[in-house]
Amino acid sequence: MTPTSTPTSTLTSTEDIRLVVLDMAGTTVADGGLVEQAFTAAARHLGADPDRMIDYVRATMGESKISVFRHLFGEEARAQEANRAFEAAYAELVDAGRVEALPGARETIEELQGRGRTVVLTTGFARATQDAILAALGWQDLVPLTLCPADAGGRGRPCPDMVLTAFLRTRAADGVGQIAVVGDTSYDMLSGVRAGAGLVAGVLTGAHDADALRAAGATRVLDSVADLPGALA
To answer: Do you know which PANTHER family this protein is assigned to (predicted)?
Structure first.
């Protein structure tokens, strides 16, 4: 692959999909602008102007948050401070009841698992934030594995590490071609493509539109995660 080539995933029969790696915020969990609100709080905590940074935050939705802050603030200590402020602000929003599942998300997960497929939930948030979201939704025992970047060696999307960690830990698939990666951002799509997933599906309930998802390698674009069981039928 040349540096300027467009990545593509390896297509497979949807009947062969054994492992489904689902993003959380924007895909199975309603975002409602909470990421931007928490970022705004973090930027102001560091005395920065959030309006000058918000375009980058939107473009990199899906990437691990500490990576975003490293790009924006440079110095590691400031990036870590911004990340802590972000996580604290997001936790307050979760505690205030601002987090809810997207329509059909839980039912989709239960249906996929009922058909014998393994579902893993992934996020670009830190583990504490991911656990708070799962607790708020009552999803602690919904799937056998949840992953954040730290669980996969520290590299978040667009690296394939979380997808490959799900593959290795669950042993649900015989090869990466039996993996479906589903998310709402370009970085979700890139992580699936780089992992060699057989199906890379974008959903239109989150950060990026259909053109952006396809440009990043989506092989399917769905209105929402609720359409996934039908796409895999």
So the answer is: PHOSPHOGLYCOLATE PHOSPHATASE, PHOSPHONOACETALDEHYDE HYDROLASE
pLDDT mean over 110-129: 93
151 contact partners, CB below 8 Å, separation of at least 6: 127, 162, 165
CA dihedral 194, 196, 201, 203 (to 10 degrees): -30
Structural contact between residues 194 and 167, judged by C-beta atoms closer than 8 angstroms: no
Strand order in the sheet with 179-183: 145-147, 118-122, 19-23, 179-183, 199-203, 220-222
User: For the chain, first and last CA: distance in Å?
Assistant: 32
Q: What is the DSSP string of 9-64?
A: -----GGG--EEEEE-BTTTB--TTHHHHHHHHHHHHTT--GGGTHHHHHHTTTB-
Closest by Cα among 91, 114, 94 to 233: 114
Query: What does the H/E/C string look like for 71-116?
Result: HHHCCHHHHHHHHHHHHHHHHHHHHCCCCCECCCHHHHHHHHHHCC
Residues 6 or more apart from 22 whose CB is under 8 A from it? 28, 109, 119, 120, 121, 122, 182, 183, 225
Q: Which two tokens stand for residue 119?
A: 């579902």
